[in-house]
Amino acid sequence: MKRFLSILFFLCLVNFVQAQDENARKEHFNLKKTVAISAYDPVSYFTGVPLKGSPNFIHLHNGIVYLFSSNKNKKSFIENPSKYEPAYGGWCAYAMGLKKVDKVAINPKTYKIIDNKLYLFYNKFGINTKEKWDKEGEKKLKTNADKNWNKIISK
């Protein structure tokens, strides 16, 4: 009985820690009505055509809701979520790479795959930050963005 209570306590503790981690992720992710990537299918970016997801193919991953355009894409995501989740919680990569860090919204159709990772960018009112990212130096901006993102998620 004592062993059972110890195991039960441990499982409750694990669930509590997981819930805290999920809440922290939700706090840092760019979500629209609780859904990531403006309801676009994260796997579809890797086929070269971003597609809107469908509520028929939904998956909750560590507190973040994703929609998919097909069951096949949903299964691919479940098998390897770290490959398909967007960098920087789905916030604009260019803005994340600047000295004054802001979480800036994105246009889900403005993206780039770098080293098999999805990066999203702001593109509205004639300002395309993906073009700025490419022009101003991806390597430097990405290095800065990685550092800035790590600061944000470690708070």
Series of secondary-structure elements, N-terminal to C-terminal: HEEEEHHHEEEEHH
The level of helicity is 40-55%
Oligomer: single chain
Shape designation: globular
Main sheet summary: 2 strands, antiparallel
Strand order of the largest sheet: 1-2
Write down the domain tally.
2
Q: Any low-confidence stretches, pLDDT <50, length ≥5?
A: 1-20
- What is the CA-CA span between the terminal residues? 40 Å
**E-strand count:** 8
Total of DSSP H or I helical runs spanning 4+ residues: 6
How would you explain this protein's 3D organization?
With 155 residues, the chain is of the alpha+beta class. It folds into 2 domains: 1-82, no CATH class; 86-155, no CATH class. 44% of the residues lie in helices and 22% in strands. The chain has helices at 2-28, 71-79, 81-84, 93-96, 129-136, 138-153; strands at residues 31-32, 35-36, 54-61, 64-68, 107-114, 117-121, 123-124, 127-128. The strands form 4 sheets. A two-stranded antiparallel ribbon has the order 1-2. Strands 3-4 form a two-stranded antiparallel ribbon. It has a two-stranded antiparallel ribbon with strand order 5-6. The longest helix is centred in the N-terminal third of the chain and has 27 residues, at 2-28. The chain is globular. It starts with a helix and ends with a helix.
